[in-house]
Amino acid sequence: MFYREAGDFKTTYTEDSQTFPIKFDRYRYYAVLLFAFAVVPFIINDYWVNAVFLPFLIYAIAAIGLNILVGYCGQVSLGTGGFMAVGAYAVYKLMTTFPEVSIFLHVILAGGITAGVGVLFGLPSLRIKGFYLAVATLAAQFFLVWLFNRVPWFYNYSASGQISAPERTVFGVPVTGAETAPWAAYLFCLVFLTASAFIARNLTRGMAGRKWMAIRDMDIAAEIIGVNPLKAKLSAFAVSSFFVGISGALFFAIYLGAVEVGEAFGINKSFLVLFMVIIGGLGSIFGSFAGAAFLVLLPVLLKNTLVGGLGWPTDLAAHLEFIIVGAMIIIFLIAEPHGLAQLWRVAKEKLRLWPFPH
Amino acid sequence: MKDVNTEGYTTEDGRKIGGVVMEMKNITLRFGGVAAITDISFDIREGEIRAIIGPNGAGKSSMLNVISGFYVPQEGEVWYKGSRRPPMKPFEVARQGIARTFQNIALFEGMTVLDNVMTGRIRQMNAGLLSQAIWKGKAEKEETENRAAVERVIDFLEIQHIRKTPVGRLPYGLKKRVELARALAAEPSILLLDEPMAGMNVEEKEDMSRFILDVNDEFGTTIALIEHDMGVVMDLSDRVVVMDYGKKIGDGSPDEVRNNQAVIDAYLGVAHD
């Protein structure tokens, strides 16, 4: 009923190509942003931050990154875990080598380094497509984890082989290490997520996004109308890996604090992020948020209902959780193969006419 | 008809045709032992509508693929705007100003009509990734300017109402028109149309013919087209190349071609005695 485009006239092309062309959408977006920045930090506690908000924010960044590669450019990747590890180890090396530089800069640099590595492992995409490319990126996943396990330089020759984040501050407030306040960690990740979503949205609605989608939809036609496939594919790998690297850096430095590479960034992570992208909706920035929220919140919700609400034993609940989440993914994909983003789109179409559908 | 490289000629309906834009010299294209094109030469002049016709398997599409850089001929030279074109990738050819449509529509199905046509402007848009990321400066300016140009094309081809529709949902005839729009948005020096009327009914063919003539008239675009419908070809084109079994068997105005004995034989068959 409130969701109307009628009366909302566009008089310039700039207005027409904005991210939220409908006024109601735009105001809702501002409201969410305001709430996330100005209200949430004051009301959250340690449990909420560690169980819900941090994983959601960080996985959302990773999902945005992977969505650019898989959803927009059509290049399937199973190397997300490996690229997250690159981000984590890059930020660790930067933090320990240049302690005086702001962690903010380190995270961005870690993204940049991951972008470089991503381009390197994206080179096979120029020759191979589809499943075969997925297998090639799987090589990246295993190779990178192996590398970080085997070369002591990456973990500063620590006896345990783990890396752990030293304390770093932003404006005098610690954001990594044991002293971190929940709201500081939350805000730090939120800033990165907001910036990532903003950049990703701008890239995908402009010429870069069109080139990627052209390659995805029909690569031969794209080349014949003037898209350089080499540049388009590698730029998708670079941008995607940049975001994935940032999320890996945050995952290690802010969320976990200490990391053993095989556990934190194994093949499971690659699949988890890929599921987020597929369930959320390929080729949609909103879908990345929705997918991350779905796969982060669902287990928490199930655990709270089964253990907290029904009083079941924890181990039974943990196993049931796997079964239920798995079943829901399957049911969901059968019911709506285009993901949560498509559901959202359909709901909006319906809302436009509601309550007078004729 | 005078054959002067620089002067050009005047068509029956009084349009001035300019000098040679593209010249194919002794093109031979082989796939293994099969010769798809054998020693063909012809030219395309500025502002004209040039048709390539021939029976099935004559090598017409291969010829178009040579022009658009998709195939590299084993022998022969392609001259474009007065200089010999070195072997280059298809996207480089496109950036030189040669746009094309495909026999089996090759649109980007997941994108909207607007995005499809905007992709055609790739030659005119080269803002850096960083500028695009923050949507400021060159990227924003380019986007708005090129959108205006694209809207003119959309307006011209009468597809305003489907601007924001994903291409996958459109019917065949409209898809063909969107593909023409995408090629036209590039403001090409030469527009290649591979069977623009394939699979259309009479009404759609009439529409498409009108659009092709209008494009040529309004923008002065040089057009090279392949078409099977003889009526359409004879009506639209200024000069016609006829191919059969990879060889050129006729070249000239529609009337000359129509009365060419070799052409008649190729199309109707000859009695073997």
Automatic annotation (TrEMBL), chain A:
Keyword Cell membrane applies: yes
Protein topology in the membrane: Multi-pass membrane protein
Alphabetized InterPro entries for the sequence: ABC_transp_permease, LivM-like
Residue intervals passing through the bilayer: 27-44, 50-69, 76-95, 101-123, 130-148, 183-200, 236-259, 271-296, 316-335
A Pfam family assignment: BPD_transp_2
Localization terms from the record: Cell membrane
The name this protein goes by in its record: Leucine/isoleucine/valine transporter permease subunit
UniProtKB/TrEMBL annotation, chain B:
Limits of the ABC transporter domain: 22-270
GO cellular component terms attached to this protein's record: plasma membrane
GO molecular function, one term: ATP hydrolysis activity
Keywords, ordered alphabetically: ATP-binding, Hydrolase, Nucleotide-binding, Transport
Classification via InterPro entries: AAA+_ATPase, ABC_AA/LPS_Transport, ABC_transporter-like_ATP-bd, BCA_ABC_TP_C, P-loop_NTPase
Keyword Mitochondrion: no
SUPFAM superfamilies, per the entry: P-loop containing nucleoside triphosphate hydrolases
Gene3D superfamilies found in the cross-reference section: P-loop containing nucleotide triphosphate hydrolases
Entry's EC annotation: 3.6.3.25
PROSITE patterns: ABC_TRANSPORTER_2 (PS50893)
Top-level class of the enzyme under EC nomenclature: hydrolase
Protein name per UniProt: Sulfate/thiosulfate import ATP-binding protein CysA
Species of origin: Roseovarius litorisediminis
Gene: cysA_2
